Amino acid sequence: MRTRFAPSPTGDLHLGGAWTALASWVVARRADGRSALRFEDLDTARCVRGARERLEDDLRWLGLDWDGAAVTQSERGSLYEEALAKLAGLGLVYPCDCSRAEVARAASAPHEGEEAVYGGLCRDRDPARPMKRPPALRVRVPDQVVAFDDDVAGPFAQNLARDVGDFVLRRGDGAYAYQLSVVVDDAAMGITHVVRGADLVSSTPRQIWLAQTLGFAAPRFAHVPLVVACDGARLEKRTRGATVRELRDAGVASTAVIGVLAHGLGLRPTAAPAAASDVAQATAGAPIVWRQTAWPIPRSW
Ligand code: GLU
Question: Is the CB of 55 under 6 A from ligand 1?
Answer without folding.
Answer: no
